[in-house]
């Protein structure tokens, strides 16, 4: 019995010790949590939508927005360390403050919503957040874009080198006409258009070189062995021959020849027409009227009168237009497009060259359309934000910027390597449309992010 009693006592002790071992821990008292641990370092009140910076400090979302709007700096208000990326709301801390201090947080949120200044700051801060995210995606896709550009440039250069076009351009536009061989003369005549095919054989049989070509006139071309009896064809040949005599070399007749003959001017015009088409066209009118501006005007605004004979070639038409001054109807049409839609002039000029530069003309046309949309969005923003009165000041700033950049380009041009110039040229020609597509999408889909 005593043994049983002892056994029962031991069992009770074991049960008691087991009970103590498995009993749950007492929950900490709520009084141990201090409000200072969940307070903002700006307003020193309970955090509302707490935002954690890279330095570890926490602030209310609206406090951080007010600080950013007043200082325009991406740095912590307490330790002045710059944050990386864009700060986001700490969800874990937000849920904790909502549970522990629900009444205080609810009251503060109502006060924030009722304050229009805080609402505007939060909206501007959110716009800035969208811009930072777009910048991240742009940086992420930069490698693919650069790879696309490099591949495109390699393809274009391989095409030109493989076809021998670049060598022919360098040969005729830089070689004096007095040193031309009979093959050079036939190639020059071939570039005038398909309508010269009946006359090439006579030039080849007579071994007409550059010196003999310079001595040919209207009577010689009309008689044997050349037999150019068509007066319009004869005028076209003589007009181009006059240009050769004036320049001393073969004048450029397409984009690549113009680039080879005027490397600096072509690069300048490519970037200037994109940034400021009106100023660039006015510059051509003042300083490059006969060689560039006049063909440009005749191409974009052709005359209303038509010749009785059929037009057999695009080059044939261009040669005839070089002999004419624009009519007043052409000037009116040109000035209207120049003032309202200057990029349409560039698109029409590229469209006229579609049969010669198939893909290049399409890139230019698409880029001109995109630039027109961007200009329209810019004017619409000025109108909607009631800042249209600032347009004269912005035009003056743009004029000063273009003049200073053009002057800097003229000074730096002799020191820029040709390879770098070619890269910049193909970048502006083929890569700009891709960049402008992204800009147009941002303007149309998220116009509010462009307000800052």
UniProtKB/TrEMBL annotation:
GO biological process, one term: apoptotic process
RING-type domain boundaries: 40-80
Coiled-coil ranges from the UniProt annotation: none
Record domain SAM: where: 180-247
GO cellular component terms, A-Z: endoplasmic reticulum membrane
Presence of the UniProt keyword Membrane in the record: yes
Record has Cell cycle as a keyword: no
Described function: Membrane-bound E3 ubiquitin ligase that plays a role in several processes including apoptosis regulation or reticulum endoplasmic stress. Has anti-apoptotic activity, both for apoptosis triggered via death-receptors and via mitochondrial factors. Contributes to the dynamic control of IRE1/ERN1 signaling during ER stress by inducing BAX inhibitor 1/TMBIM6 proteasomal degradation. Promotes the activation of TGF-beta signaling by mediating the 'Lys-63'-linked ubiquitination of TGFBR1 which is critical to activate the pathway.
Protein name: Bifunctional apoptosis regulator
Organism: Oryzias latipes (Japanese rice fish)
